[in-house]
Write a structure and sequence with these properties.
alpha/beta, Rossmann fold, eight-stranded mixed beta sheet, 7 helices, 8 strands
């Protein structure tokens, strides 16, 4: 039995990924900042899903989640899905003229430091697994190649904090993959998916967006590691 933890799994892409992996036979820990929402999500997902309170910005919360999952038998797959976007007072994306260090720090606290905090905390459990996997949910906006290409749609995105945070996640992915060659550690781009993160303006369903996350959560020991992928294949850094 494969045991999987998904952060930010009570809704959106995290929830859909949990649903798909439960259907595939995984025991899935539904990580949620809000314990009640996590419990409700796990109940809706049915047998195979277990709620665990997990705030990726809080050391004590992450440590408690480690103890819970360790006591239940360990962990095989970690999906770092929790993420936030920087928005202004009118819910607009904050561009270069208005972004502040405090706003950057807030976004990085969840998207970057949260990814490191959770990965670091669960490393020991993952290393005990016969086939450990880490999937870092990145973004197409993380690609420096695309952002610098005027002909690519990503180049028109005005935000600073979110793309920068996901570019950092990509580098974290590469460095962890080199440090732990026995693990499969990859970054994925779900695509522009309708979720609360983008006020449901995305062009894909959560079913479509979760496809690459689910796929990379089930790779084998001989599959690639240290890569950056969307549903069509590798992406340029």
């Amino acid at each position: 039995m494969t045991t999987t933890l998904i952060t930010g799994a009570n809704k959106g892409l995290g929830y859909e990924t949990a649903r798909r992996l439960v259907a595939a036979g995984h025991t899935v820990y539904v990580g949620s900042r809000n314990a009640d929402r996590g419990r409700r999500a796990a109940e809706q997902l049915g047998p195979g899903a277990r709620a665990v309170q997990l705030d990726v910005t809080d050391d004590a919360s992450v440590a408690a989640a480690v103890k819970t999952i360790e006591a239940d038998g360990g962990l095989d797959v970690l999906i770092n899905n929790a993420g936030i976007e920087a928005r202004g007072p009118h819910n607009e994306v904050v561009g270069a003229a208005d972004v502040t260090a405090d706003l950057m720090r807030e976004v990085f606290e969840t998207n970057v430091f949260g990814t490191v905090r959770v990965t670091h905390a669960f490393l020991t459990l993952l290393q005990r697994s016969a086939a450990p996997i880490v999937v870092n949910v990145s973004s197409g906006l993380a690609s420096l190649a695309h952002a610098a290409d005027p002909a690519h749609p990503a180049a028109a995105y005005p935000g600073v904090a979110y793309p920068a945070s996901k570019t950092a996640v990509n580098m974290i992915t590469v460095q962890y993959a080199k440090a732990f060659p026995d693990m499969r550690i990859n970054a994925v781009e779900p695509g522009f998916t309708r979720t609360d993160l983008n006020r449901n303006t995305g062009t894909q369903t959560v079913e479509e967006g979760a496809e690459i996350i689910v796929r990379m959560a089930q790779v084998g020991p001989d599959d690639p590691t240290g890569g950056y992928y969307d549903a069509e294949g590798p992406l340029p850094w």
